[in-house]
Amino acid sequence: MSMSPASQPHPHAPWIVILAGVSAALHVGKLPPAIPALQADLGITLVQAGFLLSLVQLASMALGIVAGLMADGIGLRRSMLAGLGMLTVAGLAGGWAHDAASLLVLRAVEGVGVLLVTVPAPSLVRRTVAPAQMTRMLGFWGAFMPFGTAVALLLGPLVIGTWRWPAWWWLTAALTAAMALWVRAVVPRDPHAHQRRAADGERWPQRLAATLGSRGPWLGALTFGVYSAQWLAVIGFLPALYQQSGWGGARGAVLTALVAAVNMLGNIAAGRLLHRGVAPQRLLWSGFGAMALGAFLAFGTLTADAPVARYVGALLFSSVGGLIPGTLFGLVSQLAPGERTIATTVGWMQQLSAVGQVSGPPLVAWVAGVAGGWQHTWVVTASCCVAGALLAALIGRQLRSYE
User: Fold this and answer.
1) Percent of the chain at pLDDT above 70?
2) Which residues contact 205 (CB under 8 A, 6 or more apart)?
3) How many CA atoms lie within 13 A of 307 on its CB side?
4) What is the average per-residue pLDDT within 130-140?
5) Do residues 58 and 122 make contact, with C-beta atoms less than 8 angstroms apart?
6) Distance between CA atoms of 89 and 112, rounded to whole angstroms?
7) 49-77 pLDDT tens trace
8) pLDDT one-digit tens code per residue, 358-382
9) From CA 403, how far away is CA 317, in angstroms rounded?
10) What is the 3-state secondary structure of the chain?
């Protein structure tokens, strides 16, 4: 759809969309630094803390594709603004919570808010950027979660230590409210309902059937699932590994945050390499190969007495592994069965990604428990990498079929 000069997007609009995703990611990452304070102030148990940590993933696992259908139906900008509003209200209310039950309910609301912000974002980036810059910007979008998580892991302990945990909740809510105002001011409005219906002609059952009945969304979603299962498992258990190596406390927190942050490098590089014509299949293979090698170095017996080598393995795992989400976000318009199912496809990808995030860490923990240590963790991640490599080959074949 062409635009008149007056309706051209603001040049900073795609960056505002990405920053909105980062503000949502802060709500995902704000909880881990606050768990000790919540245990001390509210008497939250470890089991309750585990539910608080997983509720965002559970919301994605249950409602990812629903959020995509809503975004495609009500409008991408409206969906993002609704999600930012939910995160703001839930964050403000969370600062006044006095028990675990209230926080659990509000955390579930935040999970839905995160979905409503992040699912329409790739389509909004595509809408607000010149076609020649699209794959590059989608690579930057792929970095929103590791960047937001790293900021939360670094900033959270400082805010909580200075002003206690409610201030941390209110600060993230205030940032989200500011982003909502910025999105409202800069990101172009959605087409009117009658224009969307004229351009589409399909209601949500047709969009759902088209998405789930096509190979592309399934290949992208399954690939995202096997990636996220191992990424969260490795990142989640790194602090325990560092503790065994004598790198606990603040040092362990900074090291873990850095491992999460370098994931941005792979995401951004994926967008640039796709723009230069590198085959997506090669990028996915490179990402999964690096994750397999990195996990072996980080957890294998070969580096048991070499903590620096283990840390280098974790950095390799996360940084080059970032090629995978960056590539998948860059391909989403090709994997979706149509323009009006892109957000639905993203929702399905995030849904299976959440399945991986929920199932991966318990599986790794079970293997570690059976083995009596972390030395066989790499077997789980290598299995995920083999599955990912096979899926990457199928994605390459799928893309060639469109040529």
Assistant:
1) 90
2) none
3) 13
4) 81
5) no
6) 12
7) 767 777 777 888 887 888 888 887 788 89
8) 888 778 778 877 877 777 878 888 9
9) 33
10) CCCCHHHCCCCCHHHHHHHHHHHHHHHHHCHHHHHHHHHHHHCCCHHHHHHHHHHHHHHHHHHHHHHHHHHHHHCHHHHHHHHHHHHHHHHHHHCCCCCHHHHHHHHHHHHHHHHHHHCCHHHHHHHHCCHHHHHHHHHHHCCHHHHHHHHHHHHHHHHHHHHCHHHHHHHHHHHHHHHHHHHHHHCCCCCCHHHHHHHHCCCHHHHHHHHHCCHHHHHHHHHHHHHHHHHHHHHHHHHHHHHHCCCCHHHHHHHHHHHHHCHHHHHHHHHHHHHCCCCHHHHHHHHHHHHHHHHHHHHCHHHCCCHHHHHHHHHHHHHHHCHHHHHHHHHHHHHCCCHHHHHHHHHHHHHHHHHHHHHHHHHHHHHHHHHCCCCCHHHHHHHHHHHHHHHHHHHHHHHHHHC
Tokens of 355: 């399945």
Any idea which residue has 């509003």 for tokens? 85
